[in-house]
Design a protein that fits this description.
The complex is a heterodimer of chains A (288) and B (410). Chain A contains 10 helices and 10 strands. With 288 residues, chain A is α/β, with parallel strands linked by helices. Chain A has a domain of 195 residues: 3-Layer(aba) Sandwich (Rossmann fold), CATH 3.40.50. Chain A has a 6-stranded mixed beta sheet, sandwiched between helices. Chain A has a 4-stranded antiparallel beta sheet with strand order 2-1-4-5. Chain B has 410 residues and is of the alpha+beta class. Chain B is 55% helix and 17% strand. In chain B, the strands form 3 sheets. In chain B, strands 1, 4, 7, 8, 9, 10, 11, 12, 13 and 14 form a 10-stranded mixed beta sheet that branches. In chain B, strands 2-3 form a two-stranded antiparallel ribbon. In chain B, strands 5-6 form a two-stranded antiparallel sheet. In chain B, a hairpin with a 2-residue loop joins strand 10 and strand 11. Chain B is elongated. Classes of the chains: A alpha/beta (288), B alpha+beta (410). The interface between A and B is medium-sized, with 28 and 26 residues.
Chain lengths: 288, 410
Amino acid sequence: MALIELQDVSKLYGFGDATTLALDEVSLTINKGEFVAVMGPSGCGKSTLMNVIGLLDKPSHGQYRLDGKLVSRLSANQSAKIRRDKIGFIFQFFNLLPKLTALENVALPLTYKGMSVTKRLKIASEMLDRVGVQSREYYLPGQLSGGQLQCVAIARALVNNPQIIIADEPTGNLDSGSSRLVMELLAEIHKMGNTIIFVTHNPELTRFATRVVYMHDGGIIHDEASTIGRVATTARKVLYTIPATREEDDLAGVSLLMKALPSKSSVAKQPVIKVKKPRTIKSKAKAK
Amino acid sequence: MLGFGLGSNIKAGISTLKTSKGRSFGIMLGIIIGVTSVITILAIGDGIKTQISGQIHKYGKDIIIVKPSQLNLGSTSGAPLSSLNILSPLTYRDINTVNHVNGVSASAPVTLVPGTPKGDYGAYHQGFVIGTSASFPSLINQSLAYGDFFSDSNNNNGDEVAVLGQTAAEAMFKENVPLGASFTFHGQTFVVDGIFNTFDSTPLSQQANFNDAIFIPNSIAESFTNNTAPTYEIFARSTDPNQAAITAKNVASALDVAHGGSSNITVNTGTQDLASNNSIVNLTTGLVAGVAGISLLVAGIGIMNVMLVSVSERVREIGIRKAVGATNRQIRNQFIAEATFLSLSGALIGIILSFLIELGIRLVTSLTPIITWQSVIIVTGISLLVGIVFGTVPAIKASTKDPIEALRAE
């Protein structure tokens, strides 16, 4: 069953000459239980896609159905309630409130549900136990390591028992050990039936996904099924051609990726890429 | 109105209080000052009213007080009271006039006699000599500690006897019971016949402190000054206490006639005097408290400014809260609750502070300020209102932030 259904969704930022096309008529359907990795170079619209799916942002054009319900035109408050009940966010920079303890951070979504203090702290504590950082529940974020912080953030994302987990580069700020820990945690959550969408630059991590979506300049250029435990085929080609550690390498990797794409898909998507986006006007101006 | 648990809002307020102490104190300072000054001023006003009414109650509500409407002080500044040249429209003749009005059972003047008494230990500059009649103690319900007050016959015969206030007795003779001791005044030797019990002091009232006074028969007082001694006031009592107001009116018209139709003399019963005193005190304290109340308003603007800064510094927090499902209303309520919590904390500190100040005033001065629960409740209510009203603008600003932009903020 289609949980997320995007149909020709576009997102524009700014006005006039400064208009930026962040999403260009993206159509994407994600079913319940999928573990989707989204890959692409910086500025390709991955984060915007995550924000639109997560109801933090509204599409400028197109339709978005969540759980069969049209949500692209909901009010800010209705979106907030859906975020609260159905969606859990995990961010690259954790986004924990620095003045609250780990426990209070995890309990935050429950606060907005109107749950009593004792009940929500109990649930939050159980959730911290699940992600393995219960011993740190009274620590402030400043006293925790990056891996622990992301575990706390995952606990917060899970505490409302959401259908969808959206993770925007959850390992982008972590060392490889913590990255694996976090990804294994996400894999475990996926096994329990949650739908997970995550953004990554690291092709290695596609081995956790059941599906990999490649983006470029606001559009989806390739979409392939992947097997858990194996790096996705397209990503693998890139991975073993060039070690992707720095951003330039990432970008180089993406251009390799373009070449690595199956010819059929690349031909089909070519017109989309050819359309020059206003975004490039800006970057060109910068280059000059 | 609060969309979710009030407790968590308060908790958020407390955590803000804990983590940005300087700013929280800034928010509260205005409220603290405003609350403290309003409560203290009202307390002092109530204290004065209570003391004045206590004095009037002691005199009795049926006492008739004859006073000049205006006292002209024709003296060089800084001179002790005894040498004050008070020009009063009341004269020795008015004492007789009052005495002969229908319904007046007793009367006593308070005549200030210029000059300095000389006791065993030299001149007594702080004291002042009052000429009065035998009815004085009974009119103002003041008892004597030792000895007797002089009698009508003393007054008529012009006997050189005196009755002293407590302070005067100690200052002049360095003993508590100087009965039979003597002092000189205007070249005459006076014998101390009695000592008054301590008079209740009434700071900030128009009444002189009788503890410093030396009371002598009025006839002698007048003979010293050739009947020119200024009469400060005349106490009188009506035969029928219920007719006090009518008697007072009669006294007033009799004095008007004696002064040729118009006089600068006010005749009040105890009740009327209390009312006019209270209205003056109420007006004064009301005005000052009103000015202090404006400082609460200014404090509100301070709250608004500090909260606006706070909101722009906490944009990211707002973004995070929105991302995890906070609605605009919940964000707005959180900030209003914080502002309200801070202003209420300020009010609480202000209340505690004003109780301390009240204690200080009690200890240091003879004034007894009275903090009423009404003033505390009203001031707390105003602080609450100020917090809500001035917290609303920053709160709305916070709640309408775009979550994406807010999350991107540093």
